[in-house]
Write a structure and sequence with these properties.
The chain is built from 7 helices and 5 strands, in the order βαβαβαβααβαα. By secondary structure, the chain is α/β, with parallel strands linked by helices. It has a single domain, classed as Rossmann fold (3-Layer(aba) Sandwich), CATH 3.40.50. The chain starts with a strand and ends in a 9-residue tail after the last helix.
């Protein structure tokens, strides 16, 4: 079975892809270079794709800086040391990003004849982004059945979210059980010029929380 997997280079998308591989899916990885300030993740996605042995790794350039609205695509400061339980949507939210990304994955899946898309969204240990929730995924699946020729002809596109109800610690433990090398990944929203993580943005804080819960050392911090 073919599956299009959205591969960012972060540990979540790596783990989600590895789970799909373990389920015998043939992986076609899609990585978006969208003008994000942490473009190091695109390099990480290439390394992760090689490690996973994907059938094809497609990189698309889609510059969302023209739209703006996010500290990931503008010069606005990335929040640091934020209370992850404050319930607000932080400035690192990129407007409609997962809708855009899933739409591109859907288009490629239709060309490939694939009925499965994999995305590493999580609705427990996350920054509160609205497009990471189960309701959004269910709505997108409904849209896919209406918006494509494949859907009209009776195909049912499934959006797989194997991590959506897992804590970050559970995600990391699952990946370690699958033999993943998280040293290949990149998570930081605002890395230094040499690519080192800041340790203080939401993504770094969540990553640290996950490794602590998993009782494992983060290989990126051992270098």
């Amino acid at each position: 079975m073919k599956a299009v997997v959205l591969l960012s280079g972060g540990l979540d998308s790596y783990t989600a892809a590895a789970i799909a591989r373990a389920q015998r899916f043939s992986l076609h990885a899609l990585t978006l270079s969208y003008g994000q300030r942490h473009a190091r993740e695109v390099e990480a996605a290439r390394e992760v794709a090689r490690a996973l042995g994907v059938e094809r790794h497609l990189e698309l350039a889609l510059d969302l800086r023209a739209i703006g609205g996010s500290s990931l695509t503008t010069s606005d400061d990335v929040p640091r040391d934020r209370d992850l339980d404050d319930g607000g949507i932080p400035s690192t939210y990129v407007p409609a990003r997962n809708t855009i990304f899933l739409s591109l994955a859907l288009g490629w899946a239709e060309v490939l004849g694939a009925e499965d898309i994999v995305i590493g969204v999580n609705a427990l240990d996350y920054s509160g982004y609205p497009d990471c929730r189960p309701e959004f995924i269910a709505a997108f699946e409904s849209l896919a059945s209406l918006a494509t020729r494949a859907g009209v002809e009776g195909a049912r596109v499934r959006v797989h979210t194997p991590l959506i109800a897992m804590t970050k610690g559970e995600i990391i433990r699952r990946g370690l059980d699958l033999g993943l090398d998280y040293g290949l990944t990149h998570s930081c929203y605002d890395p230094s010029p040499d690519g080192r993580p800041c340790g203080r943005c939401d993504s770094c804080l969540l990553r640290a929380k996950g490794f602590a819960e998993a009782g494992a050392a983060d290989p990126l911090l051992l270098r």
